[in-house]
Design brief:
By secondary structure, the protein is α/β, with parallel strands linked by helices. The protein is built from eleven helices and nine strands. It has helices spanning 2-5, 9-18, 35-42, 54-66, 98-101, 108-120, 132-146, 163-167, 171-177, 197-210, 228-232; strands spanning 26-29, 46-50, 79-81, 90-92, 125-128, 151-153, 184-187, 213-216, 237-238. The two termini are 24 Å apart. Belongs to the UDP-glycosyltransferase family.
Length: 239
């Protein structure tokens, strides 16, 4: 998806240039690093918005700039140390960015994703969904790394909602209210991960055999277990 969105570059460039009063700046998500090239072509500033924190983005930029490798592909626990980031944190290979771990040299999609993340570093400024008391040292590190002070912490932010949404109990909330505290397993892999049929079947089997109640968030494009799964776990599952 990140790569596919980059195909909007030319249409957006044409749209900008056709406007009598075009926008004077671009605010875009850190997954849309390709918009940095668009901003440069239009001679306007771009501000990167990161819904995650400064430490997370610092580790991503570190990986793409150093191209750190796991010498043993069979060892997902191989430690990667992020030198230069405050505290020199170390994380196992499997906890690093999935975009980075799946990178293939010479592959157009991989190269596009890498160029996008590196392009973020050339932006005019950064806005993070975090706050100074939580990530002060890492925010200062980003400012030092970029060489300017145009780095802002505006969090913690929450998803917008209407008063009706806040007041009206949802079917899920009503179901959760019938469950004992701490008795429900929450399963979610985010919007970027898409399970294969084999992975969905394995996870479904594990949940079914556990006997636990659970909430499983599944995207429209992700695989799901067989049709009989919902019937077999009826009464202890909410979608």
């Amino acid at each position: 998806m990140t790569h596919v969105l980059s195909f909007l570059h030319d249409p957006l460039l044409h749209w900008f240039r056709s406007q009598p009063n075009p926008p004077t700046a671009i605010l875009s998500d850190f997954f849309l690093g390709w918009t940095q090239r668009l901003a440069a072509q239009l001679s306007i500033p771009r501000v990167v918005f990161s819904p995650s924190g400064a430490l997370a983005l610092s580790t991503i930029h570190f990986l793409w700039r150093t191209m750190s490798k796991n010498p043993n592909p069979d060892d997902d626990s191989f430690p990667i140390t992020f030198h230069g980031i405050p505290g020199s944190p170390t994380f196992p290979w499997y906890q690093t960015s999935s975009f980075y771990r799946s990178f293939k040299e010479g592959d157009p999609v991989s190269d596009s994703i890498r160029d996008g993340f590196l392009g973020n570093m050339a932006s005019w400024g950064f806005v993070f969904n975090t706050f100074d008391d939580l990530e002060g040292p890492y925010l200062r590190h980003v400012r030092e790394d970029l060489g300017h002070e145009r780095v802002w912490a505006v969090g913690p932010l929450s998803a917008s909602s209407t008063r009706a949404e806040e007041e009206a109990p949802t079917e899920l909330m009503r179901w959760l209210d019938t469950c004992e505290e701490g008795s429900v397993v929450y399963v979610c892999f985010g919007s970027q991960a898409m399970m294969t049929c084999e992975q969905a079947e394995a996870l479904g089997t594990g949940l079914e055999r556990s006997g636990a109640r659970f909430v499983w968030c599944v995207s429209a494009t992700s695989a799901v277990p067989d049709e009989g799964f919902e019937r077999r776990v009826e009464g202890r599952v909410s979608e």
